[in-house]
Amino acid sequence: MKVVKNYLYNAGYQIFLLLVPLITTPYIARVIGPTGVGINAYTNSIIQYFVLFGSIGINMYGNREVAFYRDDPQKLAKAFWEIELLRFSAIIVAEAAFFIYLSWTNQYHTYLLMQSLLITAAAFDISWFFMGLEDFQTTVVRNVIVKIISVILIFTFVKSAQDLAIYILIISGSQVVGNLTLWPFLRRHLVKVSWRTFNLVRHLRPALVLFIPQIATQIYLVLNKTMLGNITGVTAAGFFDNSDKIIKMVLAVVTATGTVMLPRVAHTFAKGDTAQVRRYLYSSFDFVTAASVPMTLGLAAIAPKFPVWFFGAKFAATNTLIMLEAPAILVIAWSNVLGMQYLMPTNRNRDFTISVTIGAVVNLILNIPLIMNFGAAGAAVSTVLSETSVTIYQLYIVRDELSVRHLFADLWKYLLAGGAMFAVVFWLNVTQPFNTMWLLIEVGVGVLIYAVIIVLLRAQIIKQVRQLIGR
């Protein structure tokens, strides 16, 4: 039940994160326009490289280490302080590297300085500790409060395109404040330990092992926006950023299982119960497939008219981008289960690293010709193909440990239900005037069609739902 409770907390928070942009993104898109959105996306993509460097794989590594040691208070406290001090040291180096870069570049100085608060915020991010303890309530409640305050500040102070710097400052500043608010809760979990016994270096190598896949992952998360800004211009980066936000908002609800299951699987694996690890994986894979298929096809179905209604007429170009990138929801959901819920918790770091490195290389190779010839549309296609390459490799390396046929046993049922849903919703979208009422009708019709068909087909997800209700 704890897994279910944590998923509900995390999924609830992800839905909240979905609702916040539904409120702020249309407002920001209209107030600061495609160029402003593009500048924010471009400068943020640059800052993320320094945040990545300063984090050196701590989030994933720390989460797993806390899950390993949470039954031993002394080892837990010692590991926390060693890992956090290691991160502080890396962030100082990252901050220095950023100011060297700032002295070298000759554009967007003010915006980059505002964005650089995210580097500082990373130093105080200890959410990995609470996630390792499976204490999702603490992080969720804190994040909700901070997000609500940031939304109020945005509507209060961001009134025109000239307020772009203020908008960036609110977003990055709220991240700093939000991370700091977690620190008082440490007293409930940590005991006193001797500083003289600390050994930061012992964590460096295993953290760096996880840092390598994070570098690769970051490449195909933000490189698209960096390259679009440099090759095509910041406006194209703005179009892609907004379409990518929609994809990621939908995806966040599905991948909430990864955040919840990583510490649970790591703890189960540490106890030697590999059979239970596999059971967790099969259930998670079926769940994310059942959830991501309708999200993928449903989003593609409403894409023709949704962007203009949501972002404004200036962002009409994002309708094609959303349709092109929507398949990424499904393949990322699969790789999230295989990578974050199996390879990572079971110490298959090398295999995980190779998989995301393949994705980064594919993304880099495809980005140049696709962006040069097709702009933002090329970036969307490159994203889908690179994410698909990650999933294919992960399926290949687990083929002897897991039954691939078992993983995809009910995929045809979900695709059949999703296909029928897509046909009806797409027809409604292109033939009816689009407004808030019709959006709700389309979503409602889509959910009803999908649910009825998977019930008739007796998909595995129905059994999982019944078991949860029975508990």
Could you walk me through the main structural features you see in this protein, from its secondary elements to its overall organization?
This protein has 20 helices and no strands. It is mainly α. The protein has one domain (2-409). It starts with a helix and ends with a helix. The model has no long low-confidence stretch (mean pLDDT 83). The chain crosses the membrane at residues 7-29, 41-62, 83-104, 110-133, 140-158, 164-186, 207-226, 246-266, 287-309, 321-340, 352-372, 378-399, 411-430, 436-457. InterPro entries: Polysacc_synth (IPR002797), PolySynth_Transporter (IPR052556).
The overall pLDDT average reads: 83
The ordered string of helix (H) and strand (E) elements is HHHHHHHHHHHHHHHHHHHH
Distance between the termini: 8 Å
Based on secondary structure, the structural category is: mainly alpha
Question: Which bin fits the share of residues in helices?
Answer: over 70%
Q: How much beta, percentage-wise? A: under 5%
Q: Domains counted in the coordinates: how many?
A: 1
Sheet of most strands: none
Task: Report the C-alpha radius of gyration, rounded.
Answer: 22 Å
SS element count, helices: 20
Number of strand elements: 0
Point out poorly predicted stretches.
none
What general form does the structure show?
A: globular
